[in-house]
């Protein structure tokens, strides 16, 4: 168990540099004990991998005798979040071209945030002549309905 943790901490240091790490107890169906490794990134703890010691009966049934077995998996999205400074994992499942257009094969860039609400082009302008009169929408409808110039 300690060898597993030490090896994965070394891997995390290679991938993320000198960052603060912590182990969190977890549950995975074929390992015991099970853990998740988190790093401190962007002011928050970020899970980067899950791991555990494979159940002895599974290892023995594979023909490996009494040798210990380890299981671990890295979250590729988590690695990309750190590499590209992406703040929210849900962006990877976005269909927004403003996200996808920022990345090209072979280039490492810093993610540029954008509003989750697209631009809205529904501005209305009125020219009222020399004097400017402010109306609310109901006032404008009333004005148009009573003005003879707008009737056929």
Descriptive keywords:
EC 6.1.1.20, BirA Bifunctional Protein, domain 2, four-stranded antiparallel beta sheet, alpha+beta, aa-tRNA-synth_II/BPL/LPL, elongated, single chain
CATH architecture of one domain: 2-Layer Sandwich
Q: What is the β-strand count?
A: 4
- The whole-angstrom Rg is 29 Å
SSE run: HEEEHEHHH
**Highest-level CATH class of one domain:** Alpha Beta
Strand order of the largest sheet: 1-2-3-4
Average of the residue pLDDT scores:
82
Q: Report the structural category.
A: alpha+beta
Number of helices: 5
What's the N-to-C terminus distance?
Answer: 87 Å
Q: How would you name the oligomeric state of the polypeptide chains in this document?
A: single chain
Largest sheet: 4 strands, antiparallel
* Helix-residue proportion: 25-40%
Low-confidence stretches: none
What characteristic shape results from the CA principal axes?
elongated
CATH homologous superfamily placement of one domain: Bira Bifunctional Protein, Domain 2
CATH topology of one domain: BirA Bifunctional Protein, domain 2
User: Into which percentage range does the β-strand content fall?
Assistant: 15-25%
Catalytic activity: tRNA(Phe) + L-phenylalanine + ATP = L-phenylalanyl-tRNA(Phe) + AMP + diphosphate + H(+)
EC number: 6.1.1.20
GO molecular function: ATP binding; phenylalanine-tRNA ligase activity; tRNA binding
Organism: Ditylum brightwellii
């Amino acid at each position: 168990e300690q060898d597993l943790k030490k090896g994965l901490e070394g891997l995390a240091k290679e991938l993320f540099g000198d960052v603060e790490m912590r182990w969190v107890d977890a549950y995975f169906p074929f390992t015991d004990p099970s853990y998740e490794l988190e790093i401190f990134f962007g002011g928050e703890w970020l899970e980067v991998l899950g791991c555990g010691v494979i159940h002895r009966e599974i290892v023995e049934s594979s023909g490996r005798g009494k040798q210990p077995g380890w299981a671990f998996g890295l979250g590729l999205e988590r690695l990309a979040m750190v590499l590209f400074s992406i703040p929210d994992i849900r962006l990877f499942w976005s269909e927004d071209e403003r996200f996808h257009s920022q990345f090209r094969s072979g280039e490492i860039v810093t993610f540029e945030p954008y509003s989750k609400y697209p631009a809205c082009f529904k501005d209305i302008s009125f020219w009222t002549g020399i004097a400017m009169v402010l109306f609310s929408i109901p006032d404008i409808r009333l004005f148009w309905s009573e003005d003879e110039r707008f009737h056929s």
